[in-house]
Predict the structure.
Amino acid sequence: MARDQRIEPADEMPDGYRRTMVRQIAQHAHSEIIGMQPEGEWITRAPTLRRKAILLAKVQDEAGHGLYLYSAAETLGADRGDLTRRLIDGKQKYSSIFNYPTRSFADVGVIGWLVDGAAICNQVPLCRSSYGPYARAMIRICKEESFHQRQGYELLMTMMHGTPRQREMVQDAVDRWWWPSLMMFGPPDAQSPNTAQSMAWKIKRHTNDELRQRFVDMTVPQAAALGVTLPDPALRWNEERGHHDFGQPDWDELKRVISGDGPMNRRRLDRRRRADEDGAWVRSAAAAHAVRTSRAAGPGTGGLDGEA
Ligand SMILES: [Fe+2]
Ligand SMILES: [Fe+2]
């Protein structure tokens, strides 16, 4: 680790490192999959064929991200079915951001711009995470996230050049998503007890507050170019620090949302549970097929016997 080499699946590692890694990767995978819901609700209501094609591609990318990440967790000995069960039973978390509702199509743009933008700030340093399979998955994920951010920004730019009503929709969505986006970086460093250990293990490369600052500095000029106002009266450039000063989100709200009491928590998990139940027959059919083909390919099995 000191030489900045990657830890690979067959390497020895402390139990704590393995547990932390499985927890982080699972939480990340769950976030990608649950994250399909808020925007997925708009696929049938996209205003044009072009917007629908873009949104479909984006939501499918998130499914792919979930799959790369569950695979990365499996290299540490975790079982994907078991991780999904723990998500559905509320024993493992996903990002708080997906517990907020999407009220208009402008939310699709703002999620791309702010939520995928915050995800990029969080995830680019993870491409150098000490666990090899996770770091490699992040490289591809980050490329796709930057497409997500671009499509969101382009949608908002189009709406800002539209009617006064469209500009209002964009501002309203920015007002609702700004603070939850800042919460995506987690609690302030002083209240983040695991940060030091994760930094020592090079799972994490920057603290929550450092990443939050980076996101704010990146986003302020983009907001100005769009012509929207970020809903924070304390937001201003600090010449001395060379960074923007900004207000603190409502950390009690973050605690409530993480512990299951956000506006959409119940609905997101219900939907995930139903999808899992509806997909059970596909999984058992695929498993039966896998058994049959491996028997057919194996020595002295006598070929396809149809029983599984
Ligand atoms: Fe993603
Ligand atoms: Fe994304």
